Every structure is written in structure tokens, then in C-alpha cells.
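Technical note accompanying the year-one report. For the benefit of new consortium partners, we illustrate the data format agreed upon in the data management plan: each record pairs a sequence with a C-alpha cell string. No post-processing was applied to the example shown here.
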Amino acid sequence: MNIQIAMKIFMEFLNSTWDLVNPLIVDRFYTCSDEDSYSDWIEANWEMLVEKKLLNLDEYLEPYGSGADIYGASDRITEPENGSTHRVIINSLNGDEVYDFLNEEFITLNNNIFYEFVSFRSGFYFRNPEFNHVLFYDNKGEERVIKVDNVKYSLVTI
């Protein structure tokens, strides 16, 4: 499976399961916040669905978003002792500039590191459906939010 398809499926998975699992994720006793619980759940699914489909044994993706917070020193759920060997980068699907909805300007993508899928409304991004934007940080550390329709994903070795 190519990464373009895997990323689309993962985004659709988040959109279709978010509300369903919400009652199982919120108000847990072992995490500090619902946000931490969601991060753990997303990271587990990122590793099991995307990482295990795209990479070989003993290869690992960078964490999705902020990663999990179960083991403290590791952002991983499975095999927390292992570090990342690959990352997902993004470029413009057709090479053109893309519109950054958060900063309200056109930008050029240049092998930027994928962070996570988000929704975008009223000038703000949210970590809930409908996931149809990509959040990433540019080379100056500034948050950027672009539509998924404009993104070409690639896997690179770290």
C-alpha cells in the first residue's frame, strides 16, 4: 500500500470512529486529561494501522502528533524502547503554493514534517472531526494548517 492511501484511510478512520469511542476515552483515571487519553488512543492506532502496514519489522514511524504519554520517556505505545526510523513528510500535491488557513497566507511546502490531522473552523484548528486539514510546523517552528487535498505524503528514513 502506498502512503497516500494509508494516510487517507487513517484520516477517515479518525473521522468515523471519534464520536463512537468518545465515551470510552473521556474521564479516565490513569491519564491527566482527556487530551492525553486521545493521544494514547491515536498513537496506538497510528502504530498498528499505518506503521505496521507501511514499514518492515524493526522500523518505526515518528509519533503521531504529541504521541502517547504512557511510558514517560517514550511517545510510543508498542515497543516503547525503540526510536523512530522513519517520518512522514509533506509536499504540495502539484508543486504549487498552498493556503495556510491558520496564518492566512500562501506558502511553499518543502519536505515539511507531518504532525497530525485537524479540523479548522472560525480561524482555529481543533483536534476533532471533521479531520480534513494537516497541522505541521514550518522550519521556523510556526504552526501551519493546510487542506489535506493539497498534500502529497512521503516516507523518509531518519
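Partners are asked to follow this layout when depositing records. The chain has a mean pLDDT of 92.
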